[in-house]
TrEMBL record:
Biased composition (Polar residues): 12-22
GO biological process, one term: cell division
Swiss-Prot/TrEMBL keywords: Cell cycle, Cell division, Coiled coil, Cytoplasm, Cytoskeleton, Microtubule, Mitosis
Domain of life from the UniProt record: Eukaryota
Protein name in the entry: Terminase small subunit
Cellular compartment(s): Cytoplasm, Cytoskeleton, Spindle
Region of interest (Disordered), ranges: 1-22
Family: Belongs to the HAUS1 family.
One matching Pfam family: HAUS1
Entry's Gene Ontology cellular component terms: microtubule; spindle
Major location (coarse): cytoplasm
Amino acid sequence: MSDIVGGPDPSAITSVTAESSKTTGFDANRISEVKAWLTSQFDAVGKDVPDFEYTPRSIAELHKIATLSLAKTQASAIVANDYRQKAAEYRSQAARIREILESVGLAQESLPSNVVSSAHVLAKVANLLDVRDTELSSGRSFSTENSSRREES
């Protein structure tokens, strides 16, 4: 599957000079990068890379797309890892808080149902408003930010 991409053999093309390959992106390194990227993309969905003609324009455009795709893939992997780490930290913090509440007799099971449902509603509202800190000062700063956002709109 090393030579799935059809068209003329890149090493056999002699009409492209070294100078024009710098400006058009039609060089062996870019071709190999494009082939590797295409293969990985099509392999991911279980298909073969379709045949196409190697032209300076096609290689240049595919190289741009491949470069952007790889950058976005790396960025999304970083974000996903960050979310996984934060989720683990939140679970750990929740377990710690649960233990503290249970030790002082405030386990969720021992609270009245209206208190539990109010706490759930409060948590949902905080999530919707993207409130990260429950300190009074952060609530004031949130309302100030929210007011300034509305004024800008």
